[in-house]
């Protein structure tokens, strides 16, 4: 890449985000008419009806800035966790909140720790601040290795980026594991629990992050409306943390850190679409079970998932398999971007999408 004069050198530490191909792009490049994308962990059932209606109605107010305090949505989100609005603040997608956290905590020379097969953004947003990324290998069954993470902590550790459930593996670590980590966490280090997929997990298998936040431990939780709530395109997420930290975040970020349409959609999906969301959750979990069972029957090494996607190892090179699947109209995510050359991640789509994925992959793996 040709260097541009004047830019901070850390800018060049960041790799371009690989978003994968869009349906329209694959159709035009490969001359296909019927393409499905089950590659980005989106929710095929969203936006939910009341949420959509609220967003349509809100369009007429777009000449006005939003309420800078976002009181209604922050209050609802706080109440969901038994907290007041002072413990919550919003952002344009969880991604923007993760960026703000990196900006606030990571300084030149600080170390950040993350599992080696996890959400790639953590590395980029840390490196751009001059942070050094320490990757901790996964366990043999692709779980986050909490012991390995504990062993990687040094006097320079500032942040631990931990997605639970983890993307792309769908695995979770337990309350006991997190408690063990919190016990040895140095005072200057913070755990960022990225809980983007928490709504798809069995809550009894998860740590109680909110309880640790309430106790005043060095931990915060980021969440999103992009996954369970079907609003990925609206870009709205949030963080739960102690009120002092929330106050500081609100001081650091731009004044209107969420937009009117997304906020209206988020309020409606939480207050009026509960039944539709529950039905969707049931369908996604059923689809996840079907995919896990059928892939295992095909001989794949399937990693048990607590999210809206499944990660599995095949006998084949994942890039070639994903290319062949794409030529047959099914866009998937190859594990090669995480250094897993035989692994693939598939998002749980509609029943029709699931059936088509299973049929096409069966044909290729048989041949
Ligand atoms: C683990 C994880 N965290 C955060 C995000 C970002 O979510 P958002 O769409 O709210 O920016 C994603 C998106 O895929 C994700 O997988």
Protein model, in words:
- With 367 residues, the chain is of the alpha/beta class.
- It folds into two domains: 9-46 and 275-366, Aspartate Aminotransferase, domain 1; 49-271, Aspartate Aminotransferase, domain 2.
- Helix content is 39%, strand content 15%.
- The protein has 13 helices and 13 strands.
- It has helices spanning 23-30, 49-58, 71-80, 93-105, 121-127, 146-152, 175-184, 209-214, 243-252, 260-271, 274-297, 318-327, 351-366; strands at 36-37, 88-91, 111-115, 132-136, 157-163, 190-194, 219-224, 237-240, 301-303, 309-313, 330-331, 333-334, 343-347.
- The strands form three sheets. A seven-stranded mixed sheet has the order 2-8-7-6-5-3-4, with helices on both faces. Strands 9-10-13-12 form a four-stranded antiparallel sheet, covered by helices on one side. The chain has a two-stranded parallel ribbon with strand order 1-11.
- A hairpin with an 8-residue loop joins strand 12 (333-334) and strand 13.
- Helix 2 (49-58) packs antiparallel against helix 10, helix 4 runs parallel beside helix 5 (121-127) and helix 11 (274-297) packs parallel to helix 13 (351-366).
- The chain is globular.
- The two termini are 41 Å apart.
- Bound molecules: pyridoxal-5'-phosphate.
- Pyridoxal-5'-phosphate binds next to helix 4.
